[in-house]
Amino acid sequence: MKKLKSGYTTGSCVVASVVANLNYLIKDEILDFVDISLVDDKILKIPINRLRKRKNFCTTSVIKYSGDDPDVTNGMEIFTKVTLVDEINLKSSMYNIDNIYITGGRGVGVITKKGLQQPVGKYAINPKPLEMIIKNIKLFLKENPIGNKKILVKIYIPKGREIAKKTFNEKLGIKSGLSILGTTGILKPMSEEALKDSLKLELKVLKENNKKDWIIFSFGNYGKKYCEELGLDTTNLIVISNYVGFMLDCAVELGYKKIFLVGHIGKAIKIAGGIYNTHSKVADARIEIMVTNALLVGENIENIHKILGANTVEEACDYIEKPEFFDFVANKVARKCEEYLRGEDIRCEALIFSFKDKVGISKGFKDMIGFI
Predict the structure, then answer these.
(1) Which of 36, 44, 190, 343 has the highest count of CB atoms within 10 angstroms of its CB?
(2) What is the pLDDT of residues 52-73, one digit of tens each?
(3) Could you say which of 3.50.50.60, 3.30.2110.10, 3.30.300.30, 3.90.1300.10 is the CATH number of the domain covering 7-187?
């Protein structure tokens, strides 16, 4: 298998740009590459794109490189402007750390919701990139003191607003641009863990901002659209992909009390069989679970054979003549989720559907729907 190439984070791009600015502004050195010190003291070499110098400030840009990660920011130009000043007009959106002032500009998002790594009102510059910026500035100043001058760093991304529309930023509460991200400084190709982390963060943001004790888990966009058509409150809905068990655990951790699962029976049938990661590489057995539950509601043997020969769950639904089957499966989904939670004080209900409008609703869903 081909080894995937790593890239560097937006945070590392900012740090490299700052270091290049300092070298040009204070030492009059134009660097094609800079070595930056990461949070774990490893060194990362990053190319510089362009520089411009004036009397008391310098601007530098770095081109974001994402390696083999399918990142919408790949190839984006990130700028910093470093200015030496005597006094600072401190604003609430800025960061002030040891007389080093860091702010955002065009294309850098501002935090508008609780639950993220920085307070509401601040520019969306995460703690680790901030730490790396300060660390690398101090390493430079140790060899190149500037007396009583203060350093002002302004980050801006000309295409940041446009690119942010392709991300979850606005949903998470980051308005008008992108976040400056990175934990280690090195961008590794998107992993399953990274996706799960982003889902957990979205769930946390919903909990802290909407203040509700219920959540709708949709298996995919079909489920979300179905909820919208029903007129349900989708402001407290999250598309959980395949990670049913993981997201149930997250809901417990964050204090949710009611979970509504809504989605196509193709995913739901796996949960009815006790499968809590619905990706096909983990487990399948959809048709077998369909058959088992069809037998339990008394479906005739001829239809059972047709279900066994079905190519998809959607096709298998065509051979179900017992209308109670779909409610039966919805109840199974709800109870299996509660079983997974092993006695936690959370109630689960489910609504499932096929593309041909065959719908199953668990017993308590209608009772609980007043919450949604």
Answers:
(1) 36
(2) 999 899 999 999 999 888 789 9
(3) 3.30.2110.10
